TrEMBL record:
Transmembrane spans: 20-38
UniProt keyword annotations, A-Z: Membrane, Transmembrane, Transmembrane helix
Protein's recorded name: Uncharacterized protein
Superkingdom: Bacteria
Entries under InterPro entries matching the protein: Lysozyme-like_dom_sf
Provenance organism: Lysinibacillus capsici
Length: 119
C-alpha cells in the first residue's frame, strides 16, 4: 500500500513574506557598506599606484618606443607646475632627442638639452 505524501509547505506564506521583508534591508545594508568599503580601499597607496601604472601602460601603447620610467615623474611634476600635459612633454622629448638617447644634445639650429630648447 502506497503512503500518502505530505504536501504541507515547510514555511507558511506569512513567514516567507516576513523573511523577505527582513532580508531586503539586510541586503541593501551589506551592499552599501561594501560599496563604501571598496571606495575607501581604493584610496590606499597600493591601489592608486596600480591605477597610475595601468594608465601609464595604456599611454605607452601609443608610443613607438617605451617611455623611460625615470622620466615620467619629471613629466608629471612639470605638468603640475606648468599645466602642460605630461604626455605632450613625453611626446616632445621623444621627437626631439628620442628620450635623450641621441649622441649630441645640440641640434644644428642651436637648440640644446633633453627637450632641445633654444638658449
Amino acid at each position: 500500500m502506497a503512503k500518502k505524501k505530505n504536501n504541507k509547505p515547510l514555511l507558511s506564506p506569512a513567514t516567507k513574506l516576513g523573511m523577505i521583508a527582513l532580508l531586503i534591508p539586510i541586503a541593501i545594508t551589506v551592499y552599501v557598506l561594501t560599496f563604501f568599503a571598496w571606495k575607501e580601499l581604493q584610496t590606499l597607496p597600493i591601489f592608486e599606484k596600480l591605477v597610475q601604472q595601468k594608465a601609464i601602460e595604456e599611454i605607452q601603447q601609443h608610443f613607438d618606443m617605451k617611455i623611460p620610467e625615470q622620466y615620467i615623474p619629471v613629466y608629471v611634476a612639470a605638468e603640475e607646475k606648468y599645466g602642460v600635459p605630461w604626455t605632450l612633454l613625453a611626446a616632445h622629448h621623444r621627437i626631439e632627442t628620442r628620450f635623450s638617447t641621441v649622441k649630441s644634445m645640440v641640434s644644428s639650429a642651436g637648440a640644446e638639452g633633453h627637450m632641445q630648447v633654444r638658449p
